[in-house]
Structures are given as structure tokens and as C-alpha cells.
């Protein structure tokens, strides 16, 4: 057999048409979920008791004290904050933190009075002067009551099917932590300093061809 004959000989595929047509079907879940509103002091109590806990697959605590202080300040000011996702364990009824670890641990640290990463006293930092430098016990009575009674919205979910595993927990965790993009510093400045006409003037100039040629883009 000549080399040309070898090259032109078709290579037989060992796979059958049935195997080619088969595709791995995605896992589909049946999930039960409900929304619940918890007071801050109620959530801190549950964390201390262990009925709400952070699982091992979560990353470590990464917020610094200013991040934690700003979150607590939002609650003291009565501002809304993002929801927390908890998964209910079918056997124990405990609630596993899927999203919201940084917020919940910041609150526990503040109520315990210790900034756990350093072991030092937790004093609010980089916040409104009315709160700056204060610990939980150092807050004014009315501010402490406001924080205790502040509401955190929680979504609690439980995987009903498949019943042999709890893989939806990892799916939810991955999707909550990989979707979206962070705002740029300029986008944050535009949102914070929204009053006045300067932003509108700059936006208008940005649409001007001659201005963009001068600017160099």
C-alpha cells in the first residue's frame, strides 16, 4: 500500500451514534426557601450558640476593621444592607452561612468587644464622629438599642432533591461569589457626589467629539 493510500484511508470512529447523541444532563434541584427578618442581637446570639455557623469551605475573614465599622455604622444609621444566605441542615436544623460571613462575624466581634484578627478591643474606626472610637458597650443607650433591633433580612434555603447530597450549597456559594463586577473608584465617586451639576457637565463633555480628541481617547 502506497503512502497516499494510507493517508486517504478513512479512520473508523469507535464511538456509536448512540454514544454521540448522549450528553451529560445538568443536575436539577428542588429547593425550598423562605425569607426571614432577624434582629442583630438575635443573630449574634445564634452565632454564639452555634445554631448559625460558618462552614469550612468559606474563605477566611478578610475584612479590616474599617470595613467592619462601616457595616455596623450602616445599621446604626438605619441604612439597608445586603441580605444574608443561610442553608438549613436537614438533620440538625442548624443554619450554615453561605453568604454573609464577613458581616456576621463583624457583628459577633463587635458584640464580644474584641477585634478577633488582632485580639485588641473593637472600637469603631473611620465612621461618623458620633460613633467613632466607641465599643459596643460604649455606645449611647439609644444607639445600642437601635443596633440590637436593626433588622437583617435572611434567605434560608434547603435542598429537597437530590436527597443524597447537599451540592446546591456549593452551587449557590460559587454563583454568589463569582457573579458581577466591582464598581470602579470613579463609579463610586459619581454615586456618592451625585448632587450639583458637575457630573452632568462632565458626562455631556464626554460625548463631545472635540473634547474627547483633546482628552486623548
Q: Shape, please?
A: flat
Spatially, the strands of the biggest sheet line up as: 1-7-3-4-2
How confident overall, as mean pLDDT?
79
- Helix-and-strand structural type: alpha/beta
N-to-C series of helices and strands? HHEHEHEEHEEHEHHHH
Strand content: 15-25%
Termini distance? 64 Å
Identify low-pLDDT runs. Answer: 1-11, 191-195
Give the count of helical stretches.
Answer: 10
What is the CA-based Rg, rounded? 27 Å
Oligomer: single chain
User: Major β-sheet, in short?
Assistant: 5 strands, mixed
Proportion of helical residues: 40-55%
Q: Give the total of beta strands.
A: 7
- Work out the count of structural domains: 2
Give the key terms.
10 helices; two-stranded antiparallel ribbon; 41% helix; 217 residues
Task: Describe, in plain words, how this protein is organized in 3D.
- With 217 residues, this protein is an alpha/beta fold.
- It folds into two domains: 29-180, no CATH class; 181-217, no CATH class.
- Helices cover 41% and strands 17% of the residues.
- The protein has helices spanning 3-8, 17-21, 40-49, 65-76, 101-112, 141-149, 168-178, 185-192, 198-206, 209-215, and strands at residues 30-39, 52-53, 84-88, 95-99, 114-115, 120-121, 151-161.
- Helix 3 packs across helix 5 (101-112) and helix 4 (65-76) packs across helix 5 (101-112).
- The longest helix is centred in the N-terminal third of the chain and has 12 residues, at 65-76.
- It is flat.
Amino acid at each position: 500500500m502506497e503512502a497516499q493510500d494510507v493517508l486517504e484511508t478513512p479512520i473508523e470512529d469507535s464511538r456509536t451514534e448512540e454514544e454521540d447523541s448522549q450528553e451529560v444532563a445538568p443536575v436539577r434541584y428542588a429547593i425550598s426557601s423562605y425569607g426571614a427578618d432577624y434582629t442583630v442581637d438575635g443573630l449574634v446570639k445564634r452565632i454564639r450558640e452555634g445554631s448559625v455557623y460558618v462552614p469550612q469551605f468559606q474563605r477566611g475573614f478578610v475584612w479590616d476593621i474599617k470595613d467592619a465599622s462601616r457595616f455596623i455604622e450602616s445599621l446604626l444609621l438605619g441604612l439597608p444592607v445586603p441580605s444574608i444566605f443561610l442553608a438549613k441542615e436537614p438533620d440538625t436544623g442548624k443554619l450554615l452561612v453561605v453568604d454573609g460571613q464577613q458581616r456576621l462575624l463583624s457583628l459577633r466581634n463587635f458584640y464580644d468587644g474584641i477585634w478577633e484578627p488582632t485580639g485588641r478591643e473593637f472600637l469603631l474606626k473611620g465612621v461618623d464622629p458620633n460613633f467613632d472610637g466607641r465599643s459596643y458597650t460604649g455606645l449611647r443607650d439609644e444607639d445600642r438599642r437601635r443596633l440590637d433591633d436593626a433588622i437583617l433580612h435572611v434567605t434560608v434555603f434547603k435542598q429537597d432533591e437530590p436527597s443524597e447530597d447537599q451540592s446546591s450549597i456549593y452551587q449557590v456559594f460559587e454563583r454568589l461569589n463569582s457573579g458581577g463586577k466591582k464598581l470602579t473608584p470613579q463609579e463610586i465617586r459619581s454615586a456618592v457626589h451625585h448632587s450639583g451639576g458637575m457630573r452632568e457637565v462632565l458626562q455631556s463633555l464626554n460625548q463631545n467629539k472635540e473634547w474627547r480628541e483633546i482628552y486623548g481617547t
